[in-house]
Amino acid sequence: MKILLLFLSPLILFAHSLSVTASYESGELFVESYFGNGDACKGCGFTVTHNDKELFKGNLDDEGVFENKVAFKAPFGVHIDGGMGHWADVEIEKSETEELSDIVNSSNATMNSIDETKIRQIIRSELNKQNTKIETIVNKHKSKLEQLLVGLGYILGVFGLWQLFARRYQK
Questions:
Q1: Of 69, 72, 77, 84, which sits 20 to 30 A from 3 (CA to CA)?
Q2: What is the pLDDT of residues 15-32, one digit of tens each?
Q3: How many whole angstroms separate alpha carbon 95 and alpha carbon 127?
C-alpha cells in the first residue's frame, strides 16, 4: 500500500497544477490560465511586474482569460495566483516587432528598407504566438478518457514491474 501511495502522489499533485499562457502584442495583453484538469482559473488574480515593480493588477474572467489594452510595454513578468498555494509565472520578452518598430522609429527609415530576412523573422514570431494559443486550447480540451487511460497505463505498468521484481527476488 505504501508503494502505491508513493507512485500515485506525483499524479495527484500534477492534477492540481496551474498553467498559464500569456502574450503581448501592440499594447494588448492576453493572459489565459487553467488547472491541470482543464478547468479555467475563474476570477484568479494576476500581477504584472518588471524589475520587482508592480505595473498592473487584474483578475481573469469566468473563462480564465484576460485580454485588454495596457499602458506598459514588454519585457515584464505575469504572476497568476490560483489560491490555496496554486500559482504560475510566465515572462514576456520584448517582441521582434517592437524591436523592429524601435529601429524604424529611431532611424526614420521607411518600411521599404526592411529586408526579407527580418520580415521572415517577424512572421515566424507571430506564428509562434498563435501556435502557443492553439496548443493551450488543444491541451485544455484533451479527452478525459484519454487522461484516465494514460494514468491507468502508468499504474498497471508500475504494478507489472513490481511483480516482475518480486518474483525474481523470491527465488
A1: 84
A2: 457 888 888 877 888 888
A3: 12
> Nine-digit cell at 125?
514570431
| CA–CA gap between residue 149 and residue 141 (Å, rounded) | 16
Strand partners, 18: 35
Place of cell 499594447: 27
Give the angle 146-152-158 at the CA atoms, nearest 5°.
Answer: 140
What are 102's three cell numbers? Answer: 524601435
Phi and psi, residue 168, nearest 5°: -65, -40
* SS3 assignment, position 166: helix
φ/ψ (deg, to 5) at 68: -165, 160
**Distances, alpha carbon 26 to alpha carbons 23, 52, 64, 74, 164, in Å:** 10, 23, 22, 10, 58
- Sorted by sequence, the CB contacts under 8 Å of residue 90 that are 6+ apart come out as 20, 21, 22, 77, 78
Task: Examine the pLDDT at 155 and tell me if it is beyond 90.
Answer: yes
Nearest to 40 by CA among 12, 68, 13, 59: 59
With the C-alpha atoms ordered 115, 118, 124, 129, is the resulting torsion angle positive or negative? negative
**3-state DSSP assignment of residue 88:** strand
Cell reading at 19? 498553467
pTM over 0.70: no
